[in-house]
Write a structure and sequence with these properties.
By secondary structure, the protein is an alpha+beta fold. The protein has one domain: Alpha-Beta Plaits (2-Layer Sandwich).
């Protein structure tokens, strides 16, 4: 299990462009990519130009497949809308181990 949290700041003038990318990227990842358990894009309540992404993958291989997907290339291209580099945190274990309470 691998969880990834990324925080980005979007240039205000390019926010709408970024939102369009987020709205297609996250749902498609969960729906179409085996091993992608969670792919959420969240807007900060205190600053509409800050977004957080929370992804959970069954394995490193699932994450690699996510990065190889065509929609990830679209997201990478949208990185031009960011102010500075993303802040990234990775975790290798999600607790509790019994994920039966998760819903898809």
């Amino acid at each position: 299990m691998l969880a990834v949290r990324v925080t980005v700041r979007v240039e205000p003038a390019l926010r709408d462009e970024c939102l369009k990318t987020i709205e297609t990227h996250a749902p498609g990842s969960e729906k179409d990519e085996p091993g992608c358990i969670r792919c959420n894009g969240l807007q900060n309540t205190g600053d509409e130009n800050v977004y957080r992404f929370y992804d959970v993958y069954e394995s490193d291989e699932a994450r690699a497949a996510h990065r190889a997907a065509s929609r990830y290339a679209v997201w990478t291209a949208a990185a031009q809308t960011l102010e500075g580099p993303p802040e990234r945190a990775e975790c290798t274990r999600v607790l509790p181990a019994d994920r039966s309470y998760w819903r898809k």
